[in-house]
């Protein structure tokens, strides 16, 4: 089944404790991206990647890192999480950068 | 930067027709997409317009006017399951890079 998976789905952590949210797709898509969703603000793009080893900042990159060492995986790294990063996070992938995006199920992160 | 405006909430009854408008301000406009999201779930793609005019997909249609920086999503024969949030999203292309910027979403409430 073609899908985008994210792990964990739910995470409660404390300020400053490094964490990684994994994202994997099995559709051989070149383009992957991360979004955060906050009430009343819609989805905002954090980072995106057009291919292996090619990443760039979206609209709200501060406090986040990403890497794209393999085509299928695009992890989101929070080196020192803060409470303002409490949010619902979505990973998405598409065949090319202008194509329809397929979203993962989301990761609900709470930083205390 | 980019900005999108869409109504925060729309209500309608089963069987009715509803139109959700989206106006945008952006540079490097490439196309307008619409996504549906049920409460807390993954956004799913509905429709995409790169050129002016109407695109029809079953009960859903989407319209774009590039000269007016305006688009809308039309939902016909509304069903209870259509109660969800609907996001317009602008695809931009600048210097060979593409970003997707989402509006804040319109919550559609369908009543019996």
Report the portion of residues of chain A in β strands: over 45%
User: What do the pLDDT scores of chain A average to?
Assistant: 94
Q: How many β strands of chain A by DSSP?
A: 11
Uncertain parts of chain A: none
First-to-last CA distance of chain B: 41 Å
**How large, in whole angstroms, is the Cα Rg of chain B?**
14 Å
Counting copies of identical and different chains, the oligomeric state is heterodimer
Q: How many helix segments of chain B?
A: 0
Task: Please describe what this structure looks like.
The complex is a heterodimer of chains A (112) and B (112). Chain A is mainly β. Helix content of chain A is 0%, strand content 51%. Chain A has no helices and 11 strands. In chain A, the strands form 2 sheets. In chain A, strands 2, 4, 5, 6, 9, 10 and 11 form a 7-stranded mixed beta sheet that branches. A 4-stranded antiparallel beta sheet of chain A has the order 1-3-8-7, with no helix packed on it. Chain A is globular. The model of chain A has no long low-confidence stretch (mean pLDDT 94). With 112 residues, chain B is mostly beta strands. Helix content of chain B is 0%, strand content 63%. Chain B is built from no helices and 11 strands. Chain B is globular, with a radius of gyration of 14 Å. Chain B starts with a strand and ends with a strand. At the A-B interface, strand 5 and strand 10 of A face strand 4, strand 5, strand 9 and strand 10 of B.
